[in-house]
Amino acid sequence: MNDSLTYTRFTTPLGPMMAVASEEGICLFDFTDRRMLETELKQIQKHFKSSILPGKSKFFEPLKKQIDEYFEGKRKTFDIPLVTPGTKFQNEVWKVLQTIPYGETRSYKKQAIALGNVKAVRAVANANGDNRISIIIPCHRVIGEDGKLVGYGGGLWRKQWLLNLEKSNY
Questions:
Q1: Domains observed in the chain
Q2: Which of 4, 28, 145, 159 could be stapled to 132 by a disulfide with Cβ–Cβ 3.0 to 4.6 Å?
Q3: Is 27 one of the catalytic residues?
């Protein structure tokens, strides 16, 4: 799978974000200060057997437009093509994440139940943490069973900010 990968950076109200695109879609969209970003980039390069170079992609302009609309409170769903290399389980978790409606939250336990395995709470949480496409695959909408904010690769302050944005535009 020798696919060329390009990247760009966007400025958002929550700080700079990096987008990586393959020829089929966006395969990474994350905060540039995320601790796991370097690991995520290595995983993408290994999967695609390609280095990641600065450049253009037909997906960057629509991504920037949709993200700007999201931050303006004008967009609640995304239709940008995504490429999500991962295990079968991870991809199932990421698909279920995309079913959480804008402005709503679910617990990790409810996510596990939606997957058909109530005992998979920890595995669901781990797969959430491995999500490389912030905001669009909305892992920020998953909270603890007690309603508390837990775990977000971009930082809990960003998770709270995103949830507040969605609640105010719900």
A1: 5-71 (3.30.160), 88-168 (1.10.10.10)
A2: 28
A3: no
